């Protein structure tokens, strides 16, 4: 594997794990504000980010390479409302999208077609990630953060459950 691409994938593993840590901090904030359902949504979000990190981790090893794991930054929560939390989440997902695009650019540059194939899943996933945050924010902005809407949203987001990553469900169906 190209060393520049491997380095950036290592960095992406770190960013995905940071994302999980950030979403746990957001979950903690929601829980402290009395929104157990929203807290649950962020816990599931954190679990997904760990799955994303592991997808990159497994890819590096499947390609016969090793990696360097670095320290994960501490999130600095500075939220004033649930809307603020979701706005920060969307901003963060846009940052992750930019990182995925950077990885895709490097994979094209070094003509690593296996990486391009793997990264396409992440390009599609980031569309979904940003859309989820945007949809929630649209409702929050439309209602001005009305407490009745927040309670309804809390109940709805409390129904979210973790699903197995695509690769695990695909393997289970073919086994």
Structure, explained:
InterPro entries: Ferritin, Ferritin-like, Ferritin-like_diiron, Ferritin-like_SF, Ferritin_DPS_dom, Ferritin_prok. One of its GO terms (molecular function) is ferric iron binding. It is an enzyme of class 1 (oxidoreductase). This is Ferritin. The protein has 175 residues and is mainly alpha-helical. The protein has one domain (3-72, 82-162): Ferritin (Up-down Bundle). The protein is 78% helix and 0% strand. It has 6 helices and no strands. It is elongated and about 50 Å long. Mean pLDDT is 92; it is low at 169-175.
CATH superfamily: Ferritin, core subunit, four-helix bundle
CATH class: Mainly Alpha
Report the average pLDDT across residues. 92
Radius of gyration: 17 Å
| Low confidence ranges | 169-175
- Number of individual domains: 1
Q: Would you summarize the structure shown here?
A:
The chain is an all-alpha fold. The protein has a single domain, classed as Ferritin (Up-down Bundle). Helices cover 78% and strands 0% of the residues.
Give the helices and strands, then pairings:
Layout: H1 3-32, H2 36-62, H3 82-109, H4 113-143, H5 147-157, H6 166-174
Helix pairs in contact: 1-2, 1-3, 2-5, 3-4
Which key features would you list for this structure?
175 residues; Ferritin; 6 helices; disordered C terminus; mainly alpha
